[in-house]
Amino acid sequence: MKQDIGIIGLAVMGENLALNIESRGYHVSVYNRSTDKTTKFMEGRAAGKNFHGALSLADFCDSLAVPRKIILMVKAGEPVDKTIEALLPHLTKNDIIIDGGNSNYEDTERRLTDLAAQHILFVGSGISGGELGALHGPSMMPGGAAEAWPQIQPIFEAITAKVGKQEEPCCTWVGTGGAGHFVKMVHNGIEYGDMQVICEGYDVAKRLLKLDNDTIADAFADWNTKRLQSYLMEITAEILSYKENDTSIVDIILDTAGQKGTGKWTAINALNESIPLNLITESVYSRFISAQKELRTQLSKHYPKPEVNNAVGCELYDIEGAMYASKLLSYAQGFELIATKSNDKQWGIDLAAIAKIWRGGCIIRSKFLDNIALAYQQEQMDTLLFSDFYKHVLPEAIVSLRKVVALAALNGIPVASMSGALAYYDAMRTDTLPANLLQAQRDYFGAHTYERVDKPRGEFFHTNWTGEGGDTISTTYNN
User: Fold this and answer.
1) Which residues are CB-contacts of 337 (< 8 A; sequence separation ≥ 6)?
2) Which of 213, 279, 306, 328 has the most CB atoms lying inside 10 A of its own CB?
3) Exactly one of 15, 22, 109, 184 is catalytic; which is it?
4) Residue 478: its pLDDT value, please?
5) Could you read off the pLDDT of 23-55 as tens digits, one per residue?
6) Which helix (H) or strand (E) element contains residue 244?
7) 184 in active site
8) Which residues pair with 169 in a beta bridge?
9) 183 pLDDT exceeds 90?
10) Catalytic residue at 327?
11) pLDDT, mean of residues 390-398
């Protein structure tokens, strides 16, 4: 009997995804470059189930029904290319390769083109939810060769998380090209921002309000039943409550954070697209700063802490409002980046559909994604800041964000992402910014020209500021 689908890569995500697929009634072939992993899996968690454990790629491919459907769960970058190269001699026309890792969308587009020339359908699919999501139901973001979607749709929709009364699957065809991996990249960028905002709220509660971990955990658990309901709030409350021998584990974890690059990619793409993604970018920088532990320790001995300053009143509920406002602004920035790239690449991404599939299974699943999905379904807008939902809830939450950012600044507590969120909000709601002076400076030293408020947009002028510059102007460019 031929197997329905195959998975290459039996690390945590690959193994759990294989078990998930098999549990939905499918027959699954598995292969791992280290054959001992395959053997261990077949003798352990896969024992007695509908799996075929292949010890060679030839056997693996021969075991699959045609057209073959193969999910790669290997490390992004060169390992994906090498795996594809090794697979090709064993494949036939219209077989489907699905990259389920966190690949750069540009790599996905290159592979899509290269494999199309060999009549192989390629799909780049973001998969979010961590190891438990992979096992019980992740959120999946496939994109690439559209002809592959009807072949893999039943399996993908069967294994993903389900939400709402209609049990809607947390999966949709995102779009052509590298759309799937681009959306997953932005998802991860938003995840960086969410995590940093929560950490800043915790830090303010602990260092400014002098609350213990149990009290903060109780507050976070309570907020998780209301408008801040989300997976990250849920696990944070559990983390803060977790103890070993009456010691909070979180207090003995070294304050250096790791990262795998997707947040950085999100920031780089925002820069390339001229999208102000400052909250997420600050969250990436915060991880970089955390990694400089030894340098921070040395510097802490040379610079004094500011004296306690309670000039701004701040209560626990203000931290909730500050986190809520920051998260809303982060999602607005992330969705604007997706929309801009989708328009540039003509991917045709449905933003409402993306919000819907992020409601379950994925790491950033949040209650207000229902509101965001509804806004995109019912309103035409360039940014979520124009939505009725944002205009209704954001102003009240911003009041708390101002208090938290101000008090943190007065007391020397870094809240980079919250500060970035507030600066973004204030800039976006401001009709007149000081960029007029900046443009005058550019024209002064580089003859870069400027537009005028008393002339139509698109007309450019130059002033001979020193009397020595003449009328020659610089070439206009925006890159």
Assistant:
1) 186, 189, 266, 269, 270, 273, 275, 277
2) 279
3) 184
4) 56
5) 999 999 999 999 999 999 999 999 999 999 999
6) strand 243-244
7) yes
8) 162
9) yes
10) no
11) 98
